[in-house]
Amino acid sequence: MVAAKPRTFTSISPDSIVLGSIPFNLYASAAGGRLVLFCRAGLEITERHKEMLARMARQLYISSAEIEPYLGYASEQTVKQLASSSLSPAKKANIVTGVGSVIMQALLKDPRSGEIDSHSERYVDLMVELVLNSPSARDHLFVLSFTKNYLLAHSVNVCTFCILIAQNLYHGNKEVLWELGLGGLLHDIGMTQIDPEVYGKSRLLNDDEKEVVRKHPRHSYELLAEKGLSDGVLEMARSHHERADGSGYPYGIKGNEIHPFARIIAVIDVYDSLTSDRPHRQRFKPMQALKEMWDFRKCFEPIVLKELSRLVLRGSKLLERFEKNMRLPPGALRASSSWQPKWSLDDLCPF
Q1: Does domain 67-348 have CATH number 1.10.3210.10?
Q2: What is the pTM (predicted TM-score) of this model?
Q3: Position 59 confidence tier, pLDDT thresholds 50, 70, 90
């Protein structure tokens, strides 16, 4: 007799659950780390359920086998929630990014899943809609952090930043925002082909390990090419580690040889990497991350780095001074003439 495979569970945002019938079993955390069935598929979530959840402040879960019905339900409900005038921008931002988290969990588990592809595209629709129709949600999207899983959080964060920055660079062109958002969400899917033991080291990678990790842009490109996605999305996957000065990988191309979308994601990818906890170092504070990037500014598209700086410093008293410094001759942003970075950019962000 073959033993049944143990069930795995995926955490979801409580805000994505609304009143009415649900097409999946809903579980809640309980004492001792156990999960208990909170509401069975086909039954209705009532005001009493919502009050209980708010009072107990428990995390909600679904069986990983029921991700597909959950995402169909969540996408439909999120459309309604984004149109609601009674929900705050912060709540809307939390709902959308929560859905993105579940999508990425499914994709990282099975990157060739055709069932999740349409949900990825629908998710980017929702994110673009939120950014264009709720400008005040920008700040909430910027500060959201909802998981300790680096690859999962990184993918959703990069998607968000691509849309936020492209809103200014491309004057709100919805088609461009959508393409950049999808590329941001999927750009690192090739990391699923790399053994986590290689990139999970609590030290800087050695040369052999770097060579293994540097294969992930090609893996990403190959996986996404199977899905028939646009050239812009494919180039974001293949070229997000290329650098404006030719120092990147996998091809060492530079300047205008790099697709414009890839030049955008290259900046965002590094910023989110720097401001995230990694096995070999703690996260940088936003200002510290910007200073590191300006020190390596020859690696980046100038206008994108400037837009990122504006986004990070929004509402800050330092914004005016920082913008003034950006207009100074090269080198004026260094803390001192003798200061040198501790690591190379490649060591800081090996993937």
Answers
A1: yes
A2: 0.83
A3: confident
